[in-house]
Structure formats: C-alpha cells, structure tokens
C-alpha cells in the first residue's frame, strides 16, 4: 500500500509542506500554493502569525499573516496571468483570504479541509462586487486528507488557543467530529511535537499522522 504522502498530487504536497513549516514555526498549520495555467508553481505561502516580522516580502508577525494571503501576495501578476492560476489551500479560506482572491484575480480555489467556523467560500456572489468575477471554489475531494489536516489543527490549537478554541471545536464537531478526538489523543501523546523537535520533514510527519489515525481505527479511504 502506497504511503499517504506519495498518493497526493503535487499541489497538495506543497500545501502540506507549508502547513508543516507553519506548525514547526509555532504558527497555525495552514499552507497554500498558487499553480499557473501550465501546472507550474507560481507562488507558495504559509501562516506566519507567530514568526517575527521580516523584510523578505512575506507577511509575518501579525494576525494578517495567513497562508493564502502570503501565497497571493508572492504571486507576480506582471509575469503570470492570475486569471489562469489556481489557489490550493489546506483549509477553507476565511473572509480575509477570500477577499484577497477576488482582489488578485485568481479564478479557482481548491481547499482540502472545510472550516465551519471561519470558512467563507459562501462569500461568492454575496455582493455586487463579489458577483462580478467568476470565481469558483471546490471543497474536499479526499476524506483522508481532510481528516489529517483537521486533526493537526486541533492538536496545535489545544495549547495555542486554549479555551478560545472551544467555539471552533464545537463547529468542527458538527462536520469533522473525528478530528476532535484524534487531535486530543495526539496532543496527549506528544508525538507530533517530538517530530517537530527532531526537525522531521513534512512527508515523514504527514505519513506518521495518517498511519496513526489508521492505527486508531479510523478509515482513511480516499
């Protein structure tokens, strides 16, 4: 049986690489990539909320340092036609990032995991301005990928947000209930934090996460 990582298309591998880098930096584990019309990587980004402010062109050290925003901000629209690009992201974009999609001109968004608390693809067509551009959003296609992403978020959020995460968890409980139990289990075990301390690469971390979920009896069928 192929490893979880090897079964993923390149855009999702890049998103997960960025999400793991965010986790390792102490930021919310969300990653994004912009692919151009030829299927090449045009820009990539991660949540950098907990990283120091920098001069490298990425947004960091602020609540605005979202993965999608960093990927879109890094997109050179003078060299690449944004209309032909696709934004891939681990997690359903929030209002800030959906607004950025409209402003930049990207026409397609794919997200691997739903966000019932802050996810805002329902903004599509909600105002005259947001109805002008034919932006299309596509939700999760793989249950295994969604569960792994949501589980990592829960594991991270337990210590990072504390009680502030409770409304988010309550919303997630309604659509991805297994992620709450799995995230709690993995948080108590501490294995992901040990992988972070060991500077394990993304593919190792995600294969470990997927294998652990399977061992705990959850179906990761695509």
Account of the 3D structure:
By secondary structure, the protein is an alpha/beta fold. It is 45% helix and 12% strand. It is built from nine helices and five strands, in the order αββαβαβαβααααα. It has a five-stranded mixed β-sheet. The longest helix is centred in the C-terminal third of the chain and has 19 residues, at 143-161. The two termini are 13 Å apart.
Quick rundown:
The protein is α/β, with parallel strands linked by helices and 222 residues long. 45% of the residues lie in helices and 12% in strands.
**Poorly predicted residue ranges:** none
Number of helices: 9
Write the H/E string, N to C.
Answer: HEEHEHEHEHHHHH
Q: How would a textbook summarize the main sheet?
A: 5 strands, mixed
Q: Supply Rg.
A: 17 Å
The strand count comes to 5
Strand order of the largest sheet: 2-1-3-4-5
Morphology: globular
Distance between the termini: 13 Å
What fraction of the residues are assigned to beta strands by DSSP?
5-15%
Mean pLDDT: 95
The helical percent reads 40-55%
